[in-house]
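Protocol step 4 of 6: record predicted structures for both targets in the notebook before any analysis. Target 1:
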Amino acid sequence: MNLRQWRSVNLIFSVAFLSTVYLGGCASGTQNGSDTDAEPVLDASTANNEEAESQPATSVAQNTKIPDLENSEGAPALFNQAPPQSDLCQNHEDHKRTAGAQAFVSRVTPSEGPLTGGTPITVSGRGIPPGSRLLIGGVECVDAKMDAPNTLSCETPPANQEANADVTVALPDQTCISMAEGFRYVSTVSVMPRARSTIEGQTVQLSATGGKPPYTFLVLSGDGSVDQAKGIYTAPGQPGTAVIQVKDSLGSTSESVISVSPPLAIQLGPTEGKEQEYTLTVVGGAPPLTYAIKNSDESQDSNGNAVGKAIVTVTDATGTEREVALNIHRMVPLTIFASNPKMIVGKKTKIVAAGGKPPYKFSITGGSGVLDESTGDLTAPGDEGSSTLIVTDAAGATAQTSVSYVKPVVVSVKTPIEALQESIKMVGAGFGHSCVVNQGNLRCWGDNRYGEVGDGTLERRTRPTLVEPLGTSVLQVVTGYSHTCALVKGGRVECWGDNRYGQLGIGPSQNSLQPQEVDLSLTADSLAAGQYHTCAVLHDGSVYCWGSNRRGQLGTGDLEPSNIPLKVLGLTQPAKYVSLGAAHSCALLLDGSVQCWGFNGSGQLGDGTLRDRLKPVAVLGLQGKMNQLSAGGFHSCSANASEVYCWGHNNYGQLGQENLNNAQLARQVKGLPHSIQAISAGFYHTCAAVGSGQVQCWGNNQSGQLGDGSIASRQTLPVVVKGVETTISGIAAGVDHTCALVDTGVQCWGANDLGQFGSRSLEGSRVPVRPVALTHAPIKTITQ
């Protein structure tokens, strides 16, 4: 092969690997050595675009238009600007040229830059006359200029993602020449962490991703130093803020803000005379700070006052921990209660005082009962009436209660099942508001930001407020997180409050401040409310649900929400009643079995798995025929006449298992008497009314919702609620408070920041407060 032949072959090699020429319907390149008079282009070995050199020779053939990257099917837009007008590259037969003889792009410098654009590039080649226009990836460079013969320059336009972009020159005669993938867009550099808190003298490791290594770190502002190559920042010896910048080899930058704090220290304020309240002063530490009670050795003295020690810890963002020991001596307020506030004439009972400062002295006003002033023993008179009982402690504080004297009457006794069904209708679960039915009248109180109290306003109510539109026809009331529903005479269902998820069942409507009727195919026998969904058991035993369905809690076989009632699919028997958790639902069936559906992330469906279920599945592990059911936030419980079973989430011990392990199957609660009257599962705690008039609770107690006088973060076994009246007809566990139905009203304990007690005050209590009376008539239903 002679030299001229060698140069011709080399010419073909260069064109095939470096250029694409768009020629009105096809692209052509010199495929043989026939064009021996043409001046050869650059040798492939001298071309700067390494990616173009690696392309196969078949890349010469391309379509005739600048690629429409924004609108091409299946490919996302690479650039923020629209593609150029197609007339830039409309070629005609009389303008056909061969790449080797006429025009081509040979070099793009530099060949890569950041997505943000603005990279100055130079494009050179052959046959590029003045008036030519430059495009990067189909987007025209509006600032392109000719710096030298056959050489154009501009700043790259921005792009939306990393990609190789064609570099195209549109000649004045509408012929386009291009270097395929001649420029690469590279993501901008990013530093991690973007923000961090640290302590004086400590180090923070920074890292960079994206962009083009190597990376260079520097202190842009503030004090301290940073290793330019490794990104290790060393904080100075004084507090302040530093901005650290990382720059990649293409010039893109990213900043991290580091806050420097003094070392963590904790100081205890004056404690004399403040055994119930301490002031802790924390200095320094990297925020955020976390406070915790590391351990607490707390007990009660003979007067019910809390005594002991506690260690409080403060931990900052670096993991540094400081602790302080506190002495506990909290005096509980003086209280008095009667073991039996409704006495049979001629009988005896015990009047009990707790808290305050003993010794106690008892006295009586009104009526003709006989009260021992030192022991509190009360003998009822022979006639009906009432008395007020007063206790005075050594500090002069007083408390009082009342008792009534009645003659014995003969009453009809309901079967256990009848009594149970009525009790179930009386108890629900809620967040920040409570409701009670009294002689058909419905009263609600507490949080009202969505209109859930139903009085036509958004004002928080600290006292029971009548829901007037329902009159005296209410049979049952249930509350969700922020909505309320009632069953009224004739089986009609009315709902009000929050309707963001369709939980009112009234169609695509806004929130409602007053009751709105739900359109059901049959009359309803009972209701249940979850966090954002609601269900009703109809007269034929079918179950209809509406509202949020993100976890399949509507039981319709799909995840579509519904603002109207839809039938639950797959129940094997008619339902007696339902109970709803945060995002799961359970039904007690006619044969005493239990089925659940919806969210199952903690095993709250009880089927032995952690799989969400779109239709009902049977709960496994229950023994005997169940007659009670209550679903908590993320756990569920059911009971027969003598045993309580729970399953699901157990982070606070709400399953009553002496441990904190979740359970995917039903487990029997330990430590309860074998006489179960009613159960209620709250968000993270559970309560049961048992024989002899006791209430026992277990699980989360951070707000005192277990009612035993303590505030321990958790109790894995049942504890006895202190001070609750013995005539209990229902129990309702909410999110962080609990209420019981007693003859004289509603008795609550736990959190009261939203007015959950209905007692005017917003102060919580670790033991049951004095019952809130609605009228002199007995209470019928309660929900919270």
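Target 2:
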Amino acid sequence: MQTQKDEANSRWGRSASMSQDDFMRKDACLVVDEQDQLTGTENKYNCHRFTPQQPRGKLHRAFSVFLFDLKGRLLLQQRAASKITFPKVWTNTCCSHPLSGFQPSEIDTPEDVATGTVQGIKRAAIRKLEHELGIPSTQVPIEKFKFLTRLHYWAADTITHGPTSEWGEHEIDYVLFLQVPSTSLSIKPNPDEVDATQFVTLPELQRLMHPSSGLLWSPWFKIIAERFLPQWWADLSTTLTTNVHFDPITIHRFDPPVEHMGGGGSAGPFLGSPPPPLAAAALAAATSNGNGYRDNSKKQGAYGKVKSHSESVFSQLLRIDEVFCALRVKFAHPFPEVDMGQKSNEDVRFCNYILGKVSRSFAAVIRQLPKGLCLETVVFYLVLRALDTVEDDMEAFVADPSVKIQHLRSFYQVALEDPSWTLKGVGKGDEARLLEEFNRVVRVFKSLAPEMQEVIGDITRRMGNGMADFVDKDLGQGTVGVKEYDLYCHYVAGLVGEGLTRMFASSGFERADLATTSEELSNSMGLFLQKTNIIRDYLEDFVDGRAFWPQEVWKLYAPSYPGTSPSLGAFAAPENRKKGLACLDHLVTNALTHVPHCLDYMSRLKTTEIFRFCAIPQVMAIATLEKVYHNPDVFTGVVKIRKGLACKLILEASTMGELFACFENFAGKIAEKARAQQQEDGGREGGMAGETVKLCEEIKKLCSGQGGSEERRRRGCAGKQGTYLAVVLTIVIVPLLAWFVRGGAEGGFLGRLSDGPAGLLGTDYVRMAILVVASLVVTFGLSYMVVNIWAPQEGKWKEMGRTVGRSSGGKKLK
């Protein structure tokens, strides 16, 4: 055993006679601040001392290795009795520190963390696996390690050294996973580091960690095991090969259990541990309790793993017109629903029900389509949603991706032809139920007119084959080029536009040649919507391991570091935010190039319900692009437009005038943002911001020439009228109520009213009449000013401001 210790020490340039105390004083840890920024170095001894001067020691970097064999068992170690901190405790495979002074370096930069490379941490892990467990570096190649996330925790070693222990840990811990064949591992524990080792399954680990076992466990491992490990361990292949659980942004912070508080500095809580974000128990109940964590029973992929950025309730309430629109959509049901036969047919009733579950946003717009097209569109949507669920599931087919490919390629033949076909174990929540009861959709599909069945079957075949082509592609860093980006969008959205157009023509509600003359236009409609979603969902897609931002674009902006390849994930790091915003603006501009085709297509539709059905997703998309343009929130979550604004757009998308007004409005706002970027860049006319301005001005010109400006003015006036009306009524009603309440307290108006109308005095009626007339006069007077004075002058004032701004070289007037 002594020979093993000597070999382990000498292999890393240490004297065979070095003790644990020698290591504590010689090894130089990397001292960091709470944001994991390197501030210096300090020996282990001083870092781990808990004293009144430093109650929690010095915060430093560490790593925790979780090594699994091919059976999915985790290798545990029991720390040696001779260890100074936390001796005899069981813990994960290897826990230690990257150190200063080693070559190659064990120091990582923020860029290394953002990209997930962390070569320094991984080198330190390889060094310590050999030092502690005798595992040669050749058996744990550096490329096998998967960095997942970081934890900031502290704990006093009160179990070993008593309540006033001078020793403890205070670390930002990097979690590393890897999987290697146990038969190829040469485990020869160093007796000064490790007392015992054991491979365990998750159920075995949970039994061992039960208090009745009497075993001691390291506080950092208990945090990871209770809060994260079950989720990461559930599907090792996904954890190791995708970015589903990769989170380079968050530093999870946890205070220790009560038994590990105190120590030589009498330290108490200071990190304020949040509820466990990914613990198994939390997964079962957290989201349903409304605490914001992901609920795997409802959505699949990375949905819900990243936060959503939405405006505050106060911000929404300030927009009175949007509040009115939201109330109208919620309670007035502005679009009459067509009877699809759901009352007499259980399968149709199921289709109608599940539509509302898997498409809450646009279910009402689909249901308002005319009879002869409504049920057909419902079935078309559900068929493609089922196909999309198969494509999106990143867990069900991990063991054999060829099964997913087969499902996608044969879906149109098998799922649409066999009335008894269903699929279980794929998708989550309502999407899973759709597949589990898909035979009910098929029976309705079989009842449709032959020409409708032909369209749905053809689009399903082509989309399924297109999706299958992308299953084998490595999309961890996005599509390769813009051409591939466009092709993917064509498969998953452009084909939808083509299919719907063919159905519009076949139904007789639109002219027969619409499908043959508008194929390119309908494809652009789909690409515009899909690109908007891809741009908005940057972080969600990257975390899910299936990103679509084209490398041909983002590599123009991504930072590069010596010895590493550029990474799409680098934009999530705050220090790369400017580069990320430039890339984001580039992609928004690319999406805007489809707008002229979209407007051309919309101008060819003649049926109001069909127009509305197509227009609402388009106005939502242009509003979303305006929201995400140069918005740093895209890199920290999912950006969403206000619900009130969405409702307003739904209600104002029934005519070409309204559509042109909407596109002109949001294109103008994007242009203003792009001009601001030009000013920040020193007033350069060219560049991507210049391209954006040029394109937006072309869109505005196209819209204004078709009556968009007049419609915008009308809608703006109506919005201001509504706002003034609400304000005036509030100003009048509040004092009126106060006056009458006060009168009631004195036995006045309210007291007389309680006796019935006969109890009111003549002066009561006179006062009320005067207040009503005054309210109406003031309201209509303000409305007249808005329509005839303010609105016309407002445009002139804005144009004057732009003219003065240009004449002053873009500088602000003082």
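Step 5 preliminary note on target 2. The chain has 34 helices and twelve strands. The mean pLDDT is 83.
Proceed to step 6 after PI sign-off.
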